[in-house]
Amino acid sequence: MQVIDPEELAEYVPANHLNMVSRRLIGREMGATKLNVVLAVMHPGGFAPRHSHENSEHCHYVLTGELTITTAQGARTLGAGMIEWIPPGEEHEVRNNGAEDVRYIGITAPPSP
Known about the structure:
0% of the residues lie in helices and 52% in strands. The chain has strands at 18-26, 36-51, 57-64, 67-71, 74-78, 83-86, 92-95, 102-109. Strands 1, 2, 3, 4, 5, 6, 7 and 8 form an eight-stranded antiparallel β-sheet that branches. A hairpin with a 2-residue loop joins β4 and β5 (74-78). It starts with 17 loop residues before the first strand and ends with a strand.
């Protein structure tokens, strides 16, 4: 077992994600092979352009603020306490259209390359 204090983890900016920072809570660095969990803060105007995780399931659990997820099915805004699931290969875009930071947990299983 490992206990993680997010405040002790280094921040990083995920590739192709703009105006946000993340902290990897669970991932390959600690030996996890089937799960990746990040704590993300997306600032107003921040976004991840349309992309997919070809071999991974993906979800976002919103802690604070509002996060807009757009797929081929349309756009949906998630508020605090809401979660969505994206199957492998489904293209999606993630945006903070609001005036406040959005804090969310992102989970990918298995981790994307």
